[in-house]
């Protein structure tokens, strides 16, 4: 009888290439991944499962994905959508979500094919249960209305195309700050939205290029110095390096 073997890939490090930087994760204990890239219960994963439940790990993954999108796309607007109780049941997530999808569909119909509309949206649930949406937007094809309101030393705009309530929009000049705005709403108490995620995103968003075990090939090994470390724990060290052209 011939014994069947499964092919595994040993992951010592993961590199993510963004528009202007690299993020490198070096593992103290290598990860073992099946050929179809399903993780095996390695020492690292087993420990994580002991320390965190599934929801907490899901929240962490969500924040990581949002960070990747923020660093890979040059979003132009940070927008908050508030629903008018006279038009929408703002305590019903499904009702608000349907209205939001309707608005997105209308905007997509007006988009420039050469500069397609892009978005990343996170819901927020106030203490009283009312629902808001916060969005990062790129290539918004409709007019903005300038207001006299100044928030955080920046002009506030409105989106007249949103007919279900009220909007505040500000132009983005710091992606890291925006990432903090969005992720503070990602908590374990958030329900999953239609696509079983804690956020919505357009399919045309850019993502980082991901490499496994390629530090030397990318000529990054000599740059992994202590001053490039941004995080460290018993499982891995995370480096962040500027990308040189």
Structural description of this entry:
- With 245 residues, the protein is an alpha+beta fold.
- The protein is built from 4 helices and 12 strands; from the N terminus they run E-E-H-H-E-H-E-E-E-E-E-H-E-E-E-E.
- It has helices spanning 43-51, 54-72, 93-109, 175-183; strands at residues 8-17, 21-34, 77-83, 118-125, 131-138, 145-151, 154-158, 165-171, 200-201, 209-212, 229-232, 236-242.
- The strands form 3 sheets. It has a 5-stranded antiparallel beta sheet. The protein has a 5-stranded antiparallel beta sheet with strand order 8-3-5-4-9, covered by helices on one side. It has a two-stranded antiparallel ribbon with strand order 6-7.
- Strand 4 (118-125) and strand 5 form a beta hairpin.
- 19% of the residues are buried.
Keywords:
5-stranded antiparallel sheet, 12 strands, alpha+beta, elongated, 245 residues
Strand order of the largest sheet: 10-1-2-12-11
Helicity range: 10-25%
Shape summary: elongated
pLDDT average, as an integer?
84
Query: What multimeric state do the chains show?
Result: single chain
End-to-end separation in angstroms reads 55 Å
Radius of gyration computed on alpha carbons: 21 Å
Q: List the secondary-structure elements in sequence, H or E.
A: EEHHEHEEEEEHEEEE
Could you give a short account of the major beta sheet? 5 strands, antiparallel
Specify the structural class. Answer: alpha+beta
Number of H/I helices: 4
Low-confidence stretches: 40-44, 47-52
The share of residues in extended strands comes to 25-35%
Count of strand segments = 12
């Amino acid at each position: 009888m011939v014994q069947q073997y499964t092919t595994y890939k040993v992951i010592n490090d993961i590199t993510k290439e963004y528009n202007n930087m690299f993020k490198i994760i070096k593992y103290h204990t290598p990860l073992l991944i099946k050929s179809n890239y399903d993780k095996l219960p390695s020492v690292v994963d087993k420990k994580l499962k002991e320390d965190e439940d599934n929801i907490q790990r899901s929240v962490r993954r969500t924040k990581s994905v949002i960070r990747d999108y923020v660093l890979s796309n040059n979003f132009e607007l940070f927008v908050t959508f508030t629903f008018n109780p006279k038009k929408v049941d703002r305590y019903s997530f499904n009702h608000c979500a349907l209205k939001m999808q309707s608005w997105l569909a209308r905007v997509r119909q007006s988009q420039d094919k050469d500069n397609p509309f892009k978005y990343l949206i996170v819901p927020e649930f106030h203490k009283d249960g009312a629902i808001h949406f916060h969005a990062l937007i790129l290539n918004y094809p409709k007019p903005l209305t300038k207001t006299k309101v100044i928030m955080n030393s920046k002009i506030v705009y409105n989106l007249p195309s949103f007919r279900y309530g009220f909007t505040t929009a500000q132009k983005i000049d710091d992606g890291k700050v925006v990432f903090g705005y969005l992720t503070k709403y990602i908590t374990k108490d958030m329900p999953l939205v239609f696509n079983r995620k804690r956020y919505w995103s357009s399919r045309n968003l850019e993502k980082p290029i991901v490499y496994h075990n390629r530090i030397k090939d990318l000529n990054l090994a000599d740059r992994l110095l202590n001053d490039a470390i941004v995080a460290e724990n018993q499982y891995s060290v995370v480096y962040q390096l500027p990308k040189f052209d």
